[in-house]
Every structure is written in structure tokens, then in C-alpha cells.
């Protein structure tokens, strides 16, 4: 008997997970037209599989519509069945994008950017993760021994990413205990978010095959560093020419970059729950963990929520192309599509309202008083998921970026997650998230 290969149609959901259903690969043509059945209440399934109070109950039908250009087929050539999956939009049965489809939400955000500034973006998501169940390895930060011990994992992962059509950039032993980082080259628009989702899935698939389980959980040891997702962004104009940089602008930022960054900084506290959406994300977003604790702009400062990154190019046109900034307040509990959508909407708001960016700084904000921070227009980011959710729920501008009904579903979903973890002690809480991300 021959095996019948299956393709998993996946939505990158509100819990930051890929969920969906599979169909025989031979039926791909048909499924591209008819989709795969899906259910509204699935958007209320938390990362722990608890289900929030659903406005939909048992009612309603949706379809997962595979996006063919995201089809991944990776044969690990180790005797295990090849992995086949395809990212999909959630549509109504009439074919319209559904209000809680994160890919459709991102497409709308990118269209807004085109409309308001006539630019589009290139982006890449830097990912950190940690080996689970690995013995402590003191002295291994960026070390060759720990790297060598993980060489099988790194090389198999690079191979899997390349076979999936992703352009790999680096694999490194990060600073933290058993912590690694993997980066991809920037891609245009939605492809960047699609690749981030694919990268997380392929990393787990690789790790499972090598019996070296990993987690992208925002932080596994409250006394250590977190696992960040840093979103690097640059702009190109309608001709494909770089539009991020102006050698005479503050920090080297072009006009559009300044407004965009100003929007991200202004709205960051009200959208942190979309970028850093777990109950433990807020342990990571504290000073001196090289993550982000304030809504500040830094010049080459790894403690800044938005950092203007270094450029190694020398020629003006190469500098213009390489110039980028990164948003550091995100983690892998968030779906990359929602993370990028929130960033882009905030940036568009900044462009439309012609907001001015602050002068990028390099000082330690944790040493400033609240009034000193206030004078500079800087606030501490929310310090719990509940606080972050409240800031989102109270901000009509931010809620208004999303389709009708989305904010209510998102808040209900996250409240159920808070409810699920509320009685866990610190160790169990961190272990619970390490299990699911
Ligand atoms: N681990 C840090 C974070 O949680 C980032 C370290 C770095 O790559 O700069 O974002
Ligand atoms: Mg890093």
C-alpha cells in the first residue's frame, strides 16, 4: 500500500499557533477552490486549548483557503514522512476575509501603508528559542562548544528552511542558557510574516526529529533572559527604491520613517497585548534584559522598543538600502501576522497624523523618574497582560484598525488565557508556556 501524503492547511491563529486541517495532496487543486471547513469558535481556543466564552457558540461556518505560494514541502530524508503544509486565509462561506483572520488583517494593514504613504515594506523576524531539557551549560554564551553541540540541529534547520524556499541568514548560540537564534533575510510585505510562521513550525519539526525539543516561549526562567522576536523593517517606494533613510534626518530616518516610528511609539502601550500576548511576556519586557520596557526610540540601543539598527555599507545607495529599524517588544506567543499588522497600522496612524519622532537616545531609562520620562513623552509599557489588554480595550483608535468584532474576540480569548494560568505558581506558569510554544 502506498502512503497518501497529506497537506495541512494552517491558519496562524490568535494564540500564535498554526492550527488547521489536512487533506490529501492529490486534492490540492480542488481545495484551492473550495477550501477546508473551519469554525468561528476556533478563534477562541487559547494556547492551552481552553476555550474562551465565544460570541459564536456552536454556530457558523468558515473556510480555510490555502495560499498556494506559502506551500511548504520538506523531506528530512530521515525515514520520517515529509512535512507538507500551506498557510491559509480564513474566509466566510461567501469568500470574504473573516474578521479574525490574521493574514487578512495584515493584508489590510499593508494596503493602508500603500494608500497613506505610497511605500511598501520589507521585513524580517529575528527569532530566539531555547533547548528544553538540556543541562545548564555555564560559560556557553555565543560559545563554539554549545554551538557545536547544536550543529546537527542548526544545519538540519537551515536545510529545512532552504528547502521550504526561505532565505536563511544566521544561526547562533545566543547569550542565554541553551538559547539560540535564527534569522532570515528580509522579504516583501506579507511574505515576511508567512516566513516567520513557517520558521517556527519547521524549527519544532526539526527539533522533534532530532529529539532536541525547543521552545520559543517568551521566557522560561524569570531570572534569565527572554526569547525575543525582533521585527526589522525598511521601506521601498513605488519604484522599489529605498525610502527608509535620509542622511540628514534625525538618526538617519527619512520623513516617512520618522512618522511611522512616531506612530509605533505612541500606540505601543495600547497594542503591546498583540505583540507580547502571554501572561509571561511581561517578565521579559522589563529593564536590563535587552528587550523593551518603555515606548522609546534608541539609536543602536538594544534596550529600546524601537531601535535604529547599524549599517555596515559604505556607499550612499547601499546605506539607503540597508538602513532599517527594529521593533523589539514582540515575542513568539504572538502570531507574526498580527504583530506586523499592529506595527503597520500604528505606523500608518503616525504617517496620517504627521506625528514627529523623538530624537533617538541611548541613556538608561530605568534610572529616570516618572516625571523625567513624562517630559520626554516616554511611558513604561504595560507590566501585566491584564494591564496591556485594558490599554487595548480602552483605545478606540487601536481597536478601530481591526475589523468589526475582532477586538471583542481577542480580549475574550486573552481573558480566558489569564483565567487558565491565574492559580499557577511562577515555576508552573513558565513551564506551562514552555510546553505550548
Ligand atoms: N533576548 C533578548 C530579548 O528578549 C534579545 C537579545 C538580543 O538579541 O539583543 O529580546
Ligand atoms: Mg538575539
Plain-language structure description:
The protein is α+β, with helices and mostly antiparallel strands and 437 residues long. It has 2 domains: 6-98, Ubiquitin-like (UB roll), CATH 3.10.20; 104-436, 2-Layer Sandwich (Creatine Kinase, Chain A, domain 2). 36% of the residues lie in helices and 19% in strands. It has 14 helices and 15 strands. Strands 7, 8, 9, 10, 11, 12, 13, 14 and 15 form a 9-stranded mixed beta sheet that branches. Strands 1, 2, 3, 4, 5 and 6 form a 6-stranded mixed beta sheet that branches. It is globular and about 70 Å long. The two termini are 36 Å apart.
SSE blueprint:
Elements (H helix, E strand, L loop, with lengths): L5 E7 L5 E7 L3 H7 L1 E3 L23 E5 L5 E3 L8 E10 L9 H16 L1 E13 L12 H6 L1 H13 L4 E6 L5 E6 L2 E2 L1 H20 L4 E2 L13 E9 L17 H21 L5 H4 L12 E3 L6 E3 L7 H7 L2 E6 L5 H17 L17 H6 L9 H9 L2 H5 L5 H16 L4 H11 L1
Parallel strand pairs: 1-6, 13-14
Antiparallel strand pairs: 1-2, 3-4, 4-6, 5-6, 7-9, 7-10, 7-11, 7-12, 8-9, 12-15, 14-15
Helix pairs in contact: 2-9, 4-5, 6-9, 6-11, 11-13
Bound molecules: glutamic acid and magnesium ion.
Amino acid at each position: 500500500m502506498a502512503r497518501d501524503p497529506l497537506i495541512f492547511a494552517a491558519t496562524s491563529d490568535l494564540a500564535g499557533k498554526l492550527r488547521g486541517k489536512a487533506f490529501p495532496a492529490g486534492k490540492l487543486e480542488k481545495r484551492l477552490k473550495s477550501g477546508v471547513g473551519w469554525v468561528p469558535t476556533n478563534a477562541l481556543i487559547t494556547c492551552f486549548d481552553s476555550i474562551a466564552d465565544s460570541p459564536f457558540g456552536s454556530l457558523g461556518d468558515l473556510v480555510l483557503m490555502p495560499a498556494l505560494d506559502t506551500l511548504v514541502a520538506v523531506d528530512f530524508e530521515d525515514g520520517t514522512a515529509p512535512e507538507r503544509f500551506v498557510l491559509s486565509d480564513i474566509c466566510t462561506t461567501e469568500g470574504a476575509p473573516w474578521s479574525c483572520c490574521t493574514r487578512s488583517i495584515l493584508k489590510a494593514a499593508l494596503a493602508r501603508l500603500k494608500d497613506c504613504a505610497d511605500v511598501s515594506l520589507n521585513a524580517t523576524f529575528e527569532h530566539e528559542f531555547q533547548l528544553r531539557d538540556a543541562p545548564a551549560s555555564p560559560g556557553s554564551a555565543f560559545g563554539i562548544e554549545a554551538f557545536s553541540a547544536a550543529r546537527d540541529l542548526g544545519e538540519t534547520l537551515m536545510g529545512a528552511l532552504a528547502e521550504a524556499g526561505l532565505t536563511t541568514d544566521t544561526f547562533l548560540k545566543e547569550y542565554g542558557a541553551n538559547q539560540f537564534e535564527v534569522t532570515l533575510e528580509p522579504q516583501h510585505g506579507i511574505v515576511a510574516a508567512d516566513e516567520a510562521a513557517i520558521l517556527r513550525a519547521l524549527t519544532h519539526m526539526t527539533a522533534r526529529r532530532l529529539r532536541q525539543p525547543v521552545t520559543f516561549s517568551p521566557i522560561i526562567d524569570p531570572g534569565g533572559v527572554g526569547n525575543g522576536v525582533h521585527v526589522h523593517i525598511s521601506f521601498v517606494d513605488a519604484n522599489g527604491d529605498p525610502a527608509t533613510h535620509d542622511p540628514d534626518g534625525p538618526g538617519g530616518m527619512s520623513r516617512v520613517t520618522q512618522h511611522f516610528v512616531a506612530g509605533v511609539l505612541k500606540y505601543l502601550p495600547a497594542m503591546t497585548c498583540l505583540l507580547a500576548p502571554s501572561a509571561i511576556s511581561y517578565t521579559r519586557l522589563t529593564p536590563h534584559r535587552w528587550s523593551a520596557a518603555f515606548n522609546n526610540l534608541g539609536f543602536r540601543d538594544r534596550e529600546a522598543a524601537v531601535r535604529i539598527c547599524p549599517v555596515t555599507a559604505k556607499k550612499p545607495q547601499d546605506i539607503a538600502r540597508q538602513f532599517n529599524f527594529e521593533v523589539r517588544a514582540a515575542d513568539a506567543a504572538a502570531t507574526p501576522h498580527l504583530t506586523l499588522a499592529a506595527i503597520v497600522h500604528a505606523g500608518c496612524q503616525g504617517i496620517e497624523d504627521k506625528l514627529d519622532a523623538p530624537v533617538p537616545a541611548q541613556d538608561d531609562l530605568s534610572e529616570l523618574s516618572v516625571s523625567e520620562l513624562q517630559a520626554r513623552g516616554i511611558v513604561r509599557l504595560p507590566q501585566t497582560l491584564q494591564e496591556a489588554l485594558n490599554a487595548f480595550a480602552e483605545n478606540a483608535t487601536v481597536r478601530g484598525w481591526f475589523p468589526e468584532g475582532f477586538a471583542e474576540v481577542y480580549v475574550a480569548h486573552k481573558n480566558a488565557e489569564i483565567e487558565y494560568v491565574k492559580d499557577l505558581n511562577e515555576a508552573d506558569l513558565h513551564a506551562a508556556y514552555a510546553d505550548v510554544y
